[in-house]
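S.,

Sequence below, as promised.
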Amino acid sequence: MMQKIKTIQRLLLIFLLGVLGPCTTRAQQPVRLAVAGITHGHSDWIYNRKLKGDIEIVGIYETNTDRIREFRERYHLPQALFFSDLGKMLDRVKPAGVMAFGPVNEHIAVVRAAAPRNIHVMVEKPLATSYRDALEIERLAKRYGIKVLTNFETSWYSSNQYVRNCYKEGKLGQLRKVLVNDGHEGPWAMNRHFVSWLTDPVKNGGGALTDFGCYGANLMTWLMDGRRPVSVTAVTHQNRPDRYPKVEDEATIILQYPQVQCVIQASWSWTFSRKDMAVYGTKGYAIAVDRTMVKTRLEGKLPETTQTLEPRPAPFEDPFAVFAGVIQGVLKQEPNDLYELPVNVTVVEILDAARASAKSGKTIYLKSRLGLREPAMPEQPNKKLYGN
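The prediction came back faster than expected:
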């Protein structure tokens, strides 16, 4: 009897090794990714990240020969990796996903090329330079069943997750005011290839309003579970027309909701970089000071408390790992996640309205989409938790 049991156990082990072994190997295969454009300053992240074996760069599209030379020399890359035709690259290397690191107004061209080939896309923030382009991207993604993600640095912050959880758990009460500050000293000293289009109103869609205003629009739309503001009011200014003759370097955007107001301050004129968010409710407030530090005061009689959080767990601090996980289907995100398309289409709509408001000097009231009413803001926040 014992001999029979041992024989069955051996056969079962052989069966499991035969079935599970290949599956495990397939799961560990790197995701084949291509790059569309390398003039964005963040494109260096691709080769500066720690090697994890989760992705493989199989092709790079770029037409700027000077930037190609720099990139090749810096990272010791073969000429065969580079292509001057996006469509030909996608057909030749057949990637599972493509990452856009070129001018923002070229994001639409990347999606137009990738979507019919069933290739997923991740772009650097924001999603597009115009609401019209954002809506086309949304239509293409739905038609061809691809994912289109937008990468924001503030998606990586455990502090932002904590503040949102405070609100969703009801600790802050009803939302009343949100203040988002995003800016730095300005891009004038950055890579010349990046600056050449970052300060172009067509290629970037604006200056500080687009470059940093998008962070606040992204975070606020996420906090509001995708709800759009009733109105958008914006004021812009050129503090340094000598450096930025075509675009604004200072912007303030006010988003008004039925019961909540959000003030976004975006700047290329500050002494140093900052990205923070303060959320005020009827019961208290929570402030994401930086990537991991938070301040809270939940009752008027109690003092403010400060704590430093652990960073977000893998893969959430690495946009390439997030993209790979989404493509593989091992990372499931809620529809109104910071990376996801619904939130980022609304971000571009807000930026469009902000530009129109700054130009006209008037408040812009958003029309309902397809004649549908926006969902009403609930009196009590949703109790569902959104974990790290």
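The chain has a mean pLDDT of 90.

Coffee later?
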